[in-house]
Write a structure and sequence with these properties.
Layout (H helix, E strand, L loop, with lengths): L19 E5 L9 H7 L1 H4 L3 E5 L7 H21 L5 E5 L11 H4 L3 H6 L3 E8 L5 E8 L6
Parallel strand pairs: 1-2
Antiparallel strand pairs: 3-5, 4-5
Length: 145
């Protein structure tokens, strides 16, 4: 029979001796109420070894948070839009065909990538140099016409 796991809860029968707890010097304690910060140090009184650490890449936390939240919010707003129209007819790319793909070249397909709504690129002609021109149709998910 396996030994029971150590009880690391404050007030448990076992102390926190041997537990190494990383205490971030950055991000987590910025703008934290002093009472909240003081309560955290109770771990040390229970025997935990507190190790100061620097959490990597915290400068990107807010951008990542927005990157996770915004597609969900955009999808909801686009779903409302698709209650008004069956499809959105928009340029697929801002210019005719290029030899190299760049961020500017794919920026018009990004909304479909972000929201997950289906998009279809269709050829609609050629420019004066004979390069293809396309449009995209973006559709609502599962909406009957």
């Amino acid at each position: 029979m396996a030994a029971p796991a150590a009880d690391h809860r404050p007030g448990g029968d076992a102390c926190l001796a041997g537990l190494r707890a990383g205490v971030p010097r950055n991000h987590y304690f910025d703008r934290v109420d002093p009472e909240v910060a003081a309560a955290f140090w109770r771990l040390e009184a229970l025997g935990a070894r507190l190790v100061e650490i620097d959490v990597p890449m915290t400068c990107y936390v807010q951008a990542a948070q927005w990157g996770l939240m915004m597609p969900t919010l955009m999808r909801r707003e686009w779903a409302r839009l698709f209650q008004e129209v069956n499809v959105i007819a928009a340029p697929a790319v801002p210019v005719t065909a290029l030899d190299a793909v760049s961020d500017a070249y794919v920026r018009l397909s990004s909304p479909a990538d972000i929201t997950g709504f289906p998009a279809l690129s269709l050829p609609v002609g050629h420019d004066a140099a004979g390069m293809p021109i396309g449009i995209q149709l973006l559709g609502g998910s599962g909406r009957a016409w």
